[in-house]
Amino acid sequence: MISVHQAYNLKQGTIVQGKWNHSRYRIIKSLGCGATGIVYLAECPKGRVALKMSNNSTAIISEVNVLKKFGKVQGSILGPSLLDVDDWFSPSSSQLMHFYAMEYLDGENLFQFINKRGEEWLEVFLLQLLGDLQNLHETGWVFGDLKPDNVIIIPSPPKIRWLDVGGTTLQGRAIKEYTEFFDRGYWGLGSRKAEPSYDLFCVAMMIMNVAYPHRFIKKGDGHTQLIRMIEQKSLLMKYKPILLKAFEGKYADAVQMKNDLVQLRMRSDKRNVPKQVHRQRAPSQKKKKGIWETILLLIAVLIGYFVYIYTNLL
Q1: Residue 145 is among the residues annotated as catalytic for this protein
Q2: pTM for this predicted structure
Q3: Do 176 and 76 reside in the same domain of the chain?
Q4: 126, 207 in Cβ contact below 8 A?
Q5: 42, 104, 143, 278: which sits with the fewest CB atoms below 10 Å from its CB?
Q6: SS3 assignment, position 88
């Protein structure tokens, strides 16, 4: 039996033509593969698109439904836009392949962006991400397999966007796809039930991943180990109260975590204000002192002048 990766190992230049809609796509290269299929960068008359191919029709239908849901969320762009859904019979593998075409998001991964522009951008993207998660959770879904690999930073202006929606799961069900490092079940800190707190644990682990790009494996008690890893990095110590609440499942929704992040930012800004005020006030105080000295000098000169005139008149 041909594996999904063998069946969908399409060469550059391969033409994929939909059986029903007849749209043509020319394969450029593979963008990545997952449990249910492979995503390709492809070209069509309208430009470049991302093409997700799978032999699992149920998985494709599920992901298509998620993208349709994303498209209906008011005032927010969550995942890539859905462009086409179709089937294709592959001459090389003699298999019927299911695929959908979606918007191709061109940008940088989270690590690349932060390494180039600084860690302060992490806070910006976290606030964006938590806002998007709240919108998703309100529709009754959980992202599930949330990790840096499944997001991208698009430019002008920089914004975090979701790439792969394969792990998105209806709330209340078991998480469909997960990656151990970001999975609270792996760390012994909760179940794999699809609920907002699962995604918020993943967000906390994304922060950990920024500090530990190569990640680390579980050794002993997960909670104790994570605290120890936090205390070894100054970046993580800044977020420690938020990380611990996320690890312990104390956030009921993304809004609470977002509010804590905003409060953290405000406290950080307040700590910096006194020094700035001091630096700003010092020149002002010197200026005022100089003005009074000038006034007093003028008064002294005038008094001396009038005394001189008065003395000569006598």
Answers
A1: yes
A2: 0.80
A3: no
A4: yes
A5: 278
A6: strand
